[in-house]
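A.,

Following up on our hallway conversation. Structure tokens first:
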């Protein structure tokens, strides 16, 4: 059984899994769109009351059962193995298009090194995105094939510290720009009136869920390589603080650049490949900053990609008795095939489904719907059906269990529903469900979520009734 060489190595690897592109190119924009500093209040609450408890559960289950997500579910009950496979399949599906985006980042990193000038539209109008997707996938596959210590651990102990070094260096440079204080004011000044808007809370909990890589089997898999002496709660808090630090530093850097050079705050692809490159062209040392920024983005894309691939590789290894090398080759090959449609959709071919790029369709279905539902299923398996003595051994008498067992599933269902349903103003509470005005796809998504929620409620009620019956039987005997 492979193990981390130290608790610090595990923490670095887990930070790498949590810190992704969303910390850098999505978090700052969401802050700007949701009341500036006011958004940070629900975000911090979501991080420590929602993400950290779920992270503690995953790590504890992995460490206790010494199993991947598929094997762990099967150890609870044979019939729950399918839950593990569905979660693993969802994670690999997300990875298939995440590596396409990683390829874009790698391309622009190489362009910044060589001084080549190109726009995102020009780049995606060629076949280059396919090639960079293949290269990124092979890099990730090679790292995972080397194993926990030689591959994942070595990568994390280099790239995670480098991420902080690059961010701090960029923050130091941006602090000399004329618009730095305006950026800080925009980032941290709260619009307190926005705290009554439920969509700010929904956005915060949704961002935290995807930012911390919880509920995906990643932390469970990494936890299975952790020794019994490590303090899981302390590790989870360290990971959370590091993830938040990257997001805050990225916000300081990005808003400092945007406000100094007259750009509009944006998110995602537009921010990384249009807004900031335009600023790099006119700022002092712009070419150096561009190299640092795209290098930073590449680090932030590679480390979570490795963790997602490890979820699949670990499951394949333990269910087939294959070697790590063989499991890595096969799983990487599957990712290459699965990711090609997404890569092709942002290339000269422009593969689309119902008028939308295939990658976007996959993101709004598997990414936005499949992952939260998978997380809810894992919570039910490990908190409702796992042996109570084992669960107590994993979590003790802390507040973690009631939070994860009762609160987190409700939050996940609510956030996912609000993500799909268009809204109407009702008493100042925006975007309440309005199925009559929703598209067929949105109606189906909401009905799916409601059906799953009702099913989980029935399962939970049945579990409670079963436990009460067993307790009465023990009293009789």
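Then the amino acids I'd put at each of the 477 positions:
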């Amino acid at each position: 059984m492979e193990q981390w060489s130290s608790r610090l190595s595990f923490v670095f690897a887990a930070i790498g899994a949590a810190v992704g592109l969303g910390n850098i190119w999505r978090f700052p924009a969401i802050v700007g769109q949701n009341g500036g500093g006011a958004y940070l209040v629900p975000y911090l609450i979501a991080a420590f009351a929602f993400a950290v408890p779920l992270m503690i559960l995953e790590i504890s289950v992995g460490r206790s059962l010494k199993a991947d997500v598929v094997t762990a579910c099967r150890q609870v009950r044979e019939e729950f193995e399918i839950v593990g496979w569905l979660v693993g399949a969802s994670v690999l599906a997300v990875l298939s298009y995440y590596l396409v985006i990683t390829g874009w980042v790698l391309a622009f990193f190489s362009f910044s090194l060589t001084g080549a000038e190109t726009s995102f539209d020009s780049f995606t109008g060629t076949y280059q995105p396919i090639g960079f997707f293949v290269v990124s996938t092979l890099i990730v596959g090679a790292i995972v094939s080397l194993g926990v210590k030689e591959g994942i651990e070595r990568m994390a102990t280099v790239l995670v510290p480098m991420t902080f070094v690059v961010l701090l260096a960029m923050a130091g440079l941006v602090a000399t720009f004329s618009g730095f204080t305006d950026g800080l004011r925009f980032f941290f000044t709260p619009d307190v009136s926005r705290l009554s808007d439920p969509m700010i809370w929904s956005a915060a909990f949704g961002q935290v869920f995807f930012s911390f890589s919880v509920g995906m089997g990643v932390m469970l898999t990494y936890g299975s390589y952790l020794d019994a002496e490590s303090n899981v709660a302390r590790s989870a808090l360290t990971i959370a603080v590091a993830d938040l630090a990257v997001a805050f530093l990225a916000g300081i850097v990005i808003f400092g650049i945007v406000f100094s050079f007259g750009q509009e705050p944006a998110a995602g692809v537009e921010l990384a490949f249009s807004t900031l490159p335009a600023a790099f062209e006119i700022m002092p040392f712009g070419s150096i900053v561009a190299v640092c920024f795209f290098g930073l983005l590449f680090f932030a894309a590679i480390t979570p990609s490795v963790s997602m691939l490890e979820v699949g590789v670990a499951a394949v290894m333990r269910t087939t008795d294959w070697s790590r090398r063989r499991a890595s080759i096969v799983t990487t090959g599957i990712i290459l095939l699965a990711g090609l449609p997404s890569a092709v959709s942002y290339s000269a071919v422009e593969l689309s489904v119902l008028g939308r790029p295939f990658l976007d369709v996959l993101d709004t279905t598997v990414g936005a719907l499949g992952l939260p539902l998978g997380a809810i299923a894992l919570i039910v398996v490990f908190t409702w059906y796992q042996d109570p003595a084992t669960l107590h051994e994993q979590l003790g008498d802390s507040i973690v269990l009631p939070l994860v067992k009762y609160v987190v599933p409700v939050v996940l269902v609510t956030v996912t529903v609000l993500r799909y349903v268009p809204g109407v103003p009702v008493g100042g509470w925006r975007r309440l469900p309005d199925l009559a005005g929703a598209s067929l796809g949105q109606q189906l998504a909401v009905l799916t979520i409601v059906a799953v929620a009702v099913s989980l409620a029935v399962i939970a009620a049945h579990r409670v009734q079963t436990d009460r019956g067993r307790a009465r039987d023990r009293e009789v005997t």
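The first strand starts at residue 352 and ends at 353. Curious whether your intuition agrees with the design.

B.
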